[in-house]
Amino acid sequence: MKKEWNMIEVLRHSRHDWLNKLQLIKGNLDLNRIDRAKAIIDEIVIETQHETKLSNLHIPLFASLLIRANWESNIFTLEYEVLQESGILYINELALTEWTEEFFSCLNESITALDENHLAVSIDSQEDGARFFFDFSGIIKQKARIEKFLTESSVKEIGLTVKEFSEHELAFEVFLPIINR
Fold first, then answer.
1. pLDDT score for 88
2. Crossing angle for the helix pair 60-68 and 93-110, to the nearest 10 degrees
3. What angle do CA 36, 67, 168 make, to 5 degrees?
4. What CA–CA distance (Å, rounded) separates 172 from 150?
5. Residue scoring higher pLDDT (159 or 169)
6. Starting at the edge strand that comes first in sequence, how are the strands of the sheet with 77-84 ordered?
7. What's phi and psi for 144, nearest 5 deg?
8. Which end of the chain has fewer CB atoms surrounding its CB within 10 Å, N or C?
C-alpha cells in the first residue's frame, strides 16, 4: 500500500536529514577534521543543487518520488541528478511516476537487504523529450523478476533500453517524448 505523505511528515524527515548532516559536520569539526567537514558541506551543496534542478523541471509527482525515496523502507539508497535542465518537461509524468514506483517495488523484492545497494537516477531533458538513466549497483538475487518487469511492464509512452544487466549491476535508459499540450 502506498504511503500518503502530509506536510508535517515531509518536514519531519527533511529536518531529521538536516540535523544528521549538521551532526556530521560538527563531529568532524570536533575531531579537527576540517577537510572532511568541508567535503560534507560540498556534498550538501551539490545535493541541494540537484534537488533545485529537479524541482525546476515541474514534474512534481516524479520529483516527490525521488526526494522521499530514502525516507521510505527501500533497501537501496537513491541518488539523483539533473544533467541538462531545459525548463519545464511536458511528458507523461503520471506514467513515469507509476512505472518508477513499480520498478522500485520490483527492485526491493529482487535484491538482498544486507548488501550496500545503490540506485542512481540521472535526468537529461532534451528538445524532443527526457531521458532517465537508472544505474543500480548491489546484489541482485532475483534477476529473472527484474527481467520480467522490464520486458512486461512497459508503458506505451515509455521507451526502455537496457545497457547492462548482471548479478551486481543494472543500467538502463528510459525515454519519454514530449506530449502535445
1. 67
2. 20
3. 75
4. 10
5. 169
6. 77-84, 118-126, 129-137, 169-177, 159-165
7. -60, -35
8. N
Q: Strand, coil or helix: what is 111?
A: strand
Query: Which three three-digit cell numbers place residue 153?
Result: 511492464
Residues 44 and 31: their CA atoms lie apart, in Å, by 20
- Fill in the amino acid letter for 76: F
Q: For residues 132 and 78, what is the distance between their CA atoms, to the nearest angstrom?
A: 14
**Reported pTM:** 0.84
Q: So what's the pLDDT on residue 126?
A: 84
Q: Cα-Cα-Cα-Cα dihedral of 133, 139, 141, 145, to 10°? A: 0
**Per-residue pLDDT reduced to its tens digit, 26-62:** 999 999 999 999 999 999 998 888 898 898 888 999 9
Kindly state the helix (H) or strand (E) to which residue 125 belongs, with its residue range: strand 118-126
Q: What is the pLDDT of residue 3?
A: 67
Q: Are strands 159-165 and 118-126 parallel, antiparallel or unpaired?
A: unpaired
Helix or strand run (H / E) with residue 113: none
Distance of CA 177 to the CA centre of its chain: 20
Angstrom distance (rounded) from CA 167 to CA 126: 32
24, three cell numbers: 556530521
Ordered alpha helix ranges (H), 31-172: 34-56, 60-68, 93-110, 143-152
